[in-house]
């Protein structure tokens, strides 16, 4: 195997996608420790990599999607000066495919779904919907260099002050409406919990209305509404210190995987077979029991249910959520 001194990994999608790329950072760090790694992510996601504490990650670059043209040309100029041995394009779209080809790297590896894959040194299939996890798909990009062994995502955030002790986290939000468990389901679940169970509500500032609704409906339970109060790094630390995280198919699920905290993941319109399920050692998935002809209604979530009934969320049992909580308690 020829030594590889410097590589670039490109993943400019959402937060969860960026977190999953830490599995590639781990693979390179462990299997090719002499290699310096550069990473390109969407602007706003870069702070999370302060929790990737290994020096093998030499630099994190950002792509500003609010100013795409200027940011793209700046990156082309700056990355060209780095003389990368290999570039791995995890992103499957034209813009990042073109960038990878314009920076003078010796080799470019990416997925065949990228419209510019014909020009890559080698392209790889991106099987979707058959249960293969995204970290496995991503690892395939490195397989000719380092083999097929898959490593888990990894983050190790500094310990930030936690709002409570012996708490569980609930993250009711998601970028996509049809990935959100209905708020009433969260309320019903909390009403089944022991009265002394501390509950920390988490999310971004634009999800505060969701947590506020839960808090107002759960008077008498020790609720700590931390939604919108913390930067990304501190939020990750709060997840890491919890005894279990209850999440939708969203960024907090992948953060929970990376800090290896027990996770209960609620899947509404999307399905685990898409390959984005939880990866913590103790993970549980809850989804609607009956088969719905309309589920999944797309590869991603939607802004609303196309049929108006949202059965994939409304038919999830809060009793199943309680059983997951009890299993979490029993595993301690």
UniProtKB/TrEMBL annotation:
Cellular component GO terms held in the UniProt record: cytosol
Source superkingdom: Bacteria
GO terms (BP aspect): lipopolysaccharide core region biosynthetic process
UniProt KW keywords: Glycosyltransferase, Transferase
Family matches, as Gene3D superfamilies: Glycogen Phosphorylase B (3.40.50.2000)
Molecular functions (GO terms): ADP-heptose-lipopolysaccharide heptosyltransferase activity
PANTHER family associated with the record: LIPOPOLYSACCHARIDE 1,2-N-ACETYLGLUCOSAMINETRANSFERASE-RELATED, TETRAACYLDISACCHARIDE 4'-KINASE-RELATED
Protein name: Glycosyltransferase family 9 protein
């Amino acid at each position: 195997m020829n030594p590889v001194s410097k590589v670039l990994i490109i993943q400019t999608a959402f937060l969860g996608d960026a977190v999953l790329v830490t599995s590639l950072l781990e693979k390179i760090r462990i299997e090719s420790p002499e290699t310096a790694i550069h990473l390109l992510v969407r602007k706003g996601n870069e702070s999370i990599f302060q929790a990737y504490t290994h020096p093998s990650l030499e630099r994190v670059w950002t792509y500003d999607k609010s100013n795409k043209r200027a940011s793209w040309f700046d990156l082309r100029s700056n990355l060209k000066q780095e003389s990368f041995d290999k570039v791995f394009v995890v992103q499957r779209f034209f813009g990042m495919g073109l960038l990878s080809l314009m920076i003078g790297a010796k080799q470019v590896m990416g997925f065949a779904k990228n419209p510019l894959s014909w020009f890559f040194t080698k392209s790889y299939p991106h099987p979707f919907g058959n249960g293969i996890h995204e970290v496995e798909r991503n690892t395939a990009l490195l397989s000719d260099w380092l083999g097929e062994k898959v490593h888990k995502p990894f983050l190790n955030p500094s310990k930030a002050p936690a709002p409570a002790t012996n708490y569980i986290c609930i993250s009711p939000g998601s970028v996509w409406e049809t990935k959100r468990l209905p708020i009433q389901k969260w309320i019903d679940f909390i009403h089944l919990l022991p009265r002394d169970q501390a509950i920390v509500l988490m999310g971004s500032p634009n999800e505060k209305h969701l947590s506020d609704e839960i808090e107002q409906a759960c008077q008498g339970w020790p609720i700590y509404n931390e939604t919108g109060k913390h930067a990304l790094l501190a939020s990750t630390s709060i997840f890491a210190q919890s005894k279990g995280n209850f999440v939708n198919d969203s960024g907090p699920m992948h953060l929970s995987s990376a800090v290896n905290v027990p996770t209960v993941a609620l899947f509404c319109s999307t399905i685990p077979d898409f390959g984005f399920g939880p990866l913590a050692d103790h993970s549980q998935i809850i989804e609607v029991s009956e088969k719905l002809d309309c589920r999944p209604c797309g590869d991603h979530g939607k802004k609303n249910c196309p049929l108006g009934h949202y059965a994939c969320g409304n038919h999830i049992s809060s009793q199943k959520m309680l059983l997951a909580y009890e299993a979490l308690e029993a595993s301690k």
